[in-house]
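It is worth pausing here to work through a concrete case rather than discussing structure prediction in the abstract. The textbook approach is simple: state the sequence, then state the predicted structure, then interpret. We follow exactly that order.
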Amino acid sequence: MSMLSCRVFCLLAIVLCCVGVSSSSAAVNGAPGAASGGARSNQKRLEDWRERSSQSYAQWANGTLHQVLAAGKMAEQTLKMKTECAKVGETADVAARDVDVFAITLKNSIETVAAKTSEVEQNKEKGRELIKKAEEAAEKAREFADKTEAHSDQTFVKAASALEETNKFNERYSKEMEQYNAQNSQTAEKEYVKMLKTKVEAVFDRMTEKNMTKLALKAVDASEDSRKAALDAYAAVHFVEGAVKRAEEAMDQLDDAAIAAEKEKKGKKRGSDAADIPVINTKKLLLLLSVLGCMTVC
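Step two, the predicted structure:
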């Protein structure tokens, strides 16, 4: 081999060695950059998760709050209807008592009243007026009872649903806070707890979880109270129906008694008229006839 060829090979060997060293150096220097990029990617995923999770709880809290507030608003309307229903129910109850007192009083004095024609008509007119007033009150009470009962059912469904959702949220939210508070030695968990609490409290404002539960329970109570008012109104309606029936029976008995009293009066009058006819002695009648006969012969 010539001297020139040897030099060429030596140069080639040197070049290859330099290339190898350079590649190794680049690989070593590039490793920290790759590790740093991976860490940044994990941090970004963690931040995204915290944002999504806290936002999800905030949306859940918002939906729950709206359910509770809607139930509370419906409960207010239900309580207003309850007040009106109780009022008309009481009016019907009083009217029914008036009719019942009339019926009892009339039955206890029916013979006395029947003996006087003027009192018969006066009592019947009074009975008709009381019955009309009671029936009108009963009709109004039934109408309010129907509406109140229907609204009470709707309120109960809405309030029960809001209460159930509130309990679910409170339980899950409390567990989430406890879980990550237990790991508060790590900065990531502390930041998540802070973010979660901030977003949820921003939704509730001054409405705490406990107050939400109270409001939902209050709506449930309102529905039950209004239902009771409706049932009381229905009871007043039934009272009116019974009292009217008793009053009508008493007036029918009065009519019968009045007719009987009138017949008795007529019978007594006929007897009195018959008693007024003069009674002629039989002996005197025979003597009179004898005298008349003699006069005829003469």
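Step three, interpretation. The chain is about 95% helix and 0% strand. The longest helix spans residues 3-108.
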